[in-house]
Amino acid sequence: MQRHYGLDWLRIGAFAILILYHIGMVFVPWGFHAKLAQLDWVTVPMMASNPWRLSLLFVVSGYASRALFRRSSGTKAFAGNRTLRLLVPLVFGMAVVVPPQPWVELVTQHGYRASFLHFWWHDYFRFGKFGGLDLPTWNHLWFVAYLWLYTMLFTALVAVTPRRVRAGAQRLFGRLFGGWGGFVLPTAWLMIVSAVLFPGARETHALFGDWVAHATYFPAFLFGFAMAGNERVLAGFARWWKVSAALAVLAYLVVAGVQIAFAGQRFTPPPWGMVFSLARGVEGWMAIAALIGVAETFWNQDHRWRPMLTEAVFPFYLIHQTVIVVVAYWLMPATLPGWAEFAILVATTVAGCWAFYLVGRRVRVLRPLIGLRSHVTARRPAAI
Predict the structure, then answer these.
(1) Are 38 and 29 in contact (CB under 8 A)?
(2) Which of 71, 227, 260, 340 gets the highest tally of CB atoms within 10 A of its CB?
(3) What angle do CA 141, 133, 58 make, to 5 degrees?
(4) Where does the chain have alpha helices with state H?
């Protein structure tokens, strides 16, 4: 497989949007670890990426896993490599990177008075409830845990499936999703998940029992893996990206309209709750289809910055939310205007992410802890 530079750029952009989204979580009325001035209107622009940002990451991760799988010497080698590259940063993140987040939440929302060092040494590793929180926790690193789980499930499936059956499944995928099926079938599935199977359900990111998330993200991962073996699907997305982009925008306008109309209400009254869920399903896949089409059409070319940015994405993801939460905590006493708080959060988060990556990549013992290869390769950057 040739490397698809367009999907590299798409992954970089998706994580950049994720960082901005988590900064927005500081201001919206939804629950978060640190809260500044509540700005209800911020929920409207956040809905422009809410239905698709994570599904897109699982699709791209599935695509990249296909390349890693083909470079591996077998399923055991592939599973071992992915376990090392995902679980080591996850454990390090849970033990070292994430703890400031629950500490800030306990201090600002639950009346906790002890210092962070006391919390980390005495209270964080309780392996149970503390102040209403489950500790220790992975918070935003749930994505890494889910990605590892999906990778292991897929690897086990491949290991027990004969080669001819896998080849047949790949051909069937091409027939089903190579034309309009690539737009209609995933959209229909997301609408069923959102409006029929789990209406009104929220993701818990607790792994067990998080069925709405698994029903959304595991198929997205499998789709990305299968798409890497079928050029016709990519060609379809490239050909019809303008149509899918227009449908995504129209669906977003419906989502935004319902969000505005019933802002502040705990439940959206019928039939608008159903309309909201169905529109989210349409926006969720049509945006992904449009973005993949744009990446295939315009972005599939290399640049001297791409290798470093591709490698930096995982360390950025590990550290970004902790930087956001800690800086928001420091900003609380200042009571600055919302625009100033947002600007400071963006600047400090970007600076903190770069510092974490640039320092970590130069210290060999830290490299595997932040998701990088333990050794530096000359021309091939870290994969997804």
Answers:
(1) yes
(2) 227
(3) 20
(4) 5-24, 43-46, 53-71, 75-92, 100-109, 116-118, 142-160, 163-177, 181-192, 211-227, 231-239, 241-261, 272-298, 306-331, 338-362
